[in-house]
C-alpha cells in the first residue's frame, strides 16, 4: 500500500509540470477570449510548474552548470504571491500598469537568484563558511520571509476583493455575471499555499529533515495547477478587462437624505416594479428616476439603510411571497417563481430568501399551505 501511495504521489506531482504549460497554451489559444487576467493566470501556472520541476530536478541540473550555485532555497516561491496579487487585481477591475514599481514585487526573487549565482563565483569563503555553519538559521529566514511575503499579499488580495464585492453590491441587483465563487475558490488556493509555507517554517525551526516539506510542496503546487487550470479553462466569465466599469460619482451627495426623493423611490418601486428586471442596475434605476447615481446610492445607503443589492432583492423576495399565494401561479415550481420575480438562478434565490425570511422557499410555501 505504501508503494502505491508513493507512485500516486509521483504521478500527481510530475503531472503538474506538464499541466501548467498545457493550460497556459489553452488559455492563450486564438479561439479563447484574450484577457490580461488570463495572461497573469498563465504565468502563475507556469511558475508553479517550474517550482515543481525545480524541486525534483534542480540538483541534477545544477551539478552540471559551469557556474557554482549556492542554494538558499527555491527563488521561484517568491514570484507566486505577486502573480496571485496581479491576477486578483485584474479580475477585480484594477488593471496592472507597467512601471518600475512592478519590479519591486519580484525583488526577493531577483536578490536570491543574484546571491546564489555570485557568492561562490566571486569567492567569499568566509561568508560561505558562516552560512554553512548556520544552515538552519538560513533556512528559517528563507521560510520566514516567504510566509511574511505571502501573508501580506493575502491581506492585500482579500481587502481588494472585499472592496470590489461591496462595489458590485452597490451597482447590480444580480451577481451571477460576476462569478463570485471563482474568486472565493482562488482565495482558498491562496490560503492553502500560505498554510503550506507556514508548515515549511515550522519544519525549518523544529525539524532537521525538510525533504518531506519539499515533497509536500510539489504535491500542493501540482494540485493547485490542476485546480486553477480546471477552473480557469471552464470559467464562463473572467471579468472583462479584469472587471466591470462601475460609473463614477458625478457630484457629491447632499448632507442629509431628501425624504421627498425617498418617497419617490419607494413609490416607483411599488408601482413600476423595476426589480422584475433581472439586469437592473443602480445606474439604470437612477436614470429612470431622473437623479444622479451618487444621489440614489446615498438615498438607499443612508436614507433606507441598505445597499442596492439587498434593497432590490428584498422586493424580489416579497414578490415571490405574493406569487406563492396567487392561484394562477400554483403550478409554477420554485425556480419559475424566482425567475418571475427577477432572480437569475435558483441557488441565489434560495440563499437570499432564507437570509431575509429565515426559511427556505419550500419551507415557507409549506407553511402557507398548512
Secondary-structure element series:
HHHHHHHHHHHHHHHH
Radius of gyration over alpha carbons? 27 Å
Q: From the helix content, strand content and strand pairing, which structural class follows?
A: mainly alpha
**What is the 3D shape?**
elongated
Largest sheet: none
Number of helices: 16
Beta fraction? under 5%
Number of strands: 0
Helix share bin: over 70%
Mean model confidence by pLDDT: 82
Regions with little confidence, pLDDT below 50 for 5+ residues: 236-250
In whole angstroms, the N-to-C terminal distance is: 57 Å
How does this model look, in words?
With 370 residues, this protein is mainly α. α6 packs across α7 and α7 packs antiparallel against α8. The longest helix is centred in the middle third of the chain and has 35 residues. The chain starts with a helix and ends with a helix. The relative contact order is 0.10.
Amino acid at each position: 500500500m505504501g508503494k502505491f501511495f508513493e507512485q500516486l504521489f509521483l504521478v500527481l506531482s510530475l503531472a503538474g509540470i506538464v499541466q501548467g504549460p498545457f493550460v497556459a497554451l489553452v488559455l492563450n489559444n486564438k479561439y479563447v477570449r484574450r484577457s490580461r487576467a488570463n495572461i497573469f493566470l498563465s504565468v502563475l501556472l507556469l511558475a508553479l510548474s517550474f517550482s515543481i520541476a525545480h524541486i525534483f530536478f534542480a540538483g541534477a541540473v545544477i551539478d552540471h552548470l559551469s557556474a557554482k550555485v549556492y542554494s538558499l532555497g527555491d527563488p521561484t516561491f517568491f514570484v507566486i504571491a505577486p502573480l496571485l496579487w496581479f491576477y486578483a487585481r485584474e479580475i477585480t477591475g484594477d488593471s496592472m500598469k507597467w512601471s518600475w514599481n512592478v519590479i519591486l514585487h519580484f525583488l526577493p526573487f531577483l536578490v536570491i537568484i543574484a546571491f546564489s549565482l555570485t557568492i561562490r563565483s566571486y569567492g567569499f569563503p568566509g561568508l560561505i563558511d558562516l552560512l554553512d555553519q548556520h544552515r538552519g538559521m538560513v533556512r528559517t529566514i528563507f521560510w520566514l520571509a516567504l510566509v511574511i511575503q505571502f501573508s501580506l499579499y493575502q491581506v492585500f488580495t482579500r481587502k481588494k476583493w472585499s472592496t470590489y464585492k461591496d462595489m458590485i453590491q452597490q451597482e447590480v441587483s444580480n451577481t451571477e455575471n460576476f462569478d463570485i465563487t471563482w474568486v472565493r475558490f482562488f482565495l482558498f488556493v491562496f490560503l492553502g499555499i500560505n498554510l503550506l509555507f507556514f508548515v515549511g517554517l515550522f519544519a525549518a525551526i523544529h525539524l532537521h529533515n525538510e525533504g518531506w516539506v519539499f515533497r509536500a510542496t510539489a504535491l500542493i503546487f501540482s494540485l493547485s495547477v490542476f485546480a486553477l487550470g480546471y477552473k480557469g479553462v471552464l470559467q464562463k466569465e473572467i471579468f472583462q478587462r479584469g472587471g466591470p466599469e462601475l460609473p463614477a460619482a458625478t457630484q457629491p451627495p447632499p448632507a442629509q437624505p431628501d425624504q421627498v426623493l425617498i418617497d419617490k423611490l419607494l413609490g416607483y418601486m411599488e408601482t413600476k416594479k423595476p426589480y422584475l428586471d433581472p439586469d437592473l442596475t443602480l445606474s439604470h434605476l437612477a436614470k429612470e428616476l431622473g437623479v444622479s447615481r451618487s444621489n440614489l446610492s446615498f438615498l438607499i445607503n443612508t436614507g433606507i439603510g441598505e445597499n442596492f443589492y439587498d434593497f432590490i432583492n428584498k422586493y424580489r423576495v416579497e414578490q415571490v411571497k405574493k406569487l406563492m399565494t396567487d392561484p394562477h401561479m400554483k403550478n409554477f415550481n420554485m425556480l419559475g417563481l424566482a425567475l418571475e420575480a427577477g432572480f437569475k438562478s435558483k441557488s441565489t434565490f434560495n440563499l437570499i430568501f432564507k437570509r431575509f425570511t429565515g426559511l427556505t422557499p419550500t419551507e415557507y410555501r409549506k407553511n402557507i399551505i398548512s
